[in-house]
Amino acid sequence: MFPKSFDYVVPQSLGEALALMERHGDEAKVLAGGQSLIPLMKLRFLFPSHVIDIGRIPELHGIDERNGEIRCGAMTRHADIERSSLLCKHIPLLYAAATEIADVQVRNRGTLGGALAQADPASDWATTSLALKARFRCVSLRGERMINAGDFFKDTYTTALEDGEILTDIFFPLPHPASRAAYIKIHRRTGDFAIASVALQFTVDGAGHCQTIGLGVGGVGATPVAPADVIAFLRGKTLSDPVIEEAASMLKARLHPIEDIRGSSDYKRRIAGVAFQRAFRKAAGRDRRET
């Protein structure tokens, strides 16, 4: 199908883009990578009167280190993250997630900010941003806000973004050099959305006790989740197989997956438990299987 006719606008600055959004309100949609917006428009689930392409706004691009964090502009493409030596060195969890996204074509067009703003509950970036405790800079003509990843995803395809607001930057705290991380995504076929996914990052002290932990679980509810009680249970413990198995049981008991074409609620819950245990084994170097 073809989309309904619309006006295509290409602002050259963030201020110009925000003014256009203010002017056209709900009749406008922001185009980042277009990997979700364009199919929805072609199916006529969305029919904006104006499409505002933010791809040529310089300040929305780039990956750089700032004050103990790595900042990624919202227009950073999945492939940019996959190829970034800075991210591969300092936050390998981002590299691991990037390589799991769809296919080469999508990774070369899709953007980090676009995927986060889409808020698909099975999104690789939503899950990873929870584990990494990311912060999102959101800007409108009224000013700007910093929103923690844990407060950003409100419901399926629904975020904390307000009318006239654009997600401009994503900030990832630099992990401790000794931290361990893994991303496990279980899907029906390569390039598909996750049945369940687990993003994990943790550090242990000299005695082998877990000191800090970041966790994100995707595909198992209306939003990705980071169960606080599971994290609290693991903190301070030696991450032995029995401890991880008990934590996986706790996790499964707190999940409420939506039944869909990828499986029943019970099936997704079991798969999430498997992915959780595999993530810990992989991060600790005890899982040699390809994932």
CATH architecture of the largest domain: 2-Layer Sandwich
How are the strands of the largest sheet arranged?
4-5-10-6-7
Mean pLDDT: 94
Give the CA-based shape. Answer: globular
Characterise this structure.
The protein is an alpha+beta fold. The chain has three domains: 7-53, Uridine Diphospho-n-acetylenolpyruvylglucosamine Reductase, domain 2 (2-Layer Sandwich), CATH 3.30.43; 58-173, Uridine Diphospho-n-acetylenolpyruvylglucosamine Reductase, domain 3 (2-Layer Sandwich), CATH 3.30.465.10; 180-283, CO dehydrogenase flavoprotein, C-terminal domain (Enolase-like, domain 1, 2-Layer Sandwich), CATH 3.30.390.50. The chain contains twelve helices and 13 strands. The protein has helices at 14-24, 37-42, 78-83, 85-90, 92-98, 104-109, 112-118, 124-131, 149-152, 228-234, 241-254, 265-283, and strands spanning 7-9, 28-31, 50-53, 63-66, 69-73, 135-140, 143-148, 153-155, 158-159, 166-173, 180-186, 196-204, 210-218. It has a five-stranded antiparallel sheet. A hairpin with a 2-residue loop joins β6 (135-140) and β7. α10 runs antiparallel to α11 (241-254) and α11 runs antiparallel to α12 (265-283). The longest helix has 19 residues, at 265-283. It is globular, with a radius of gyration of 19 Å. The two termini are 36 Å apart. 42% of the residues are buried. The model has no long low-confidence stretch (mean pLDDT 94).
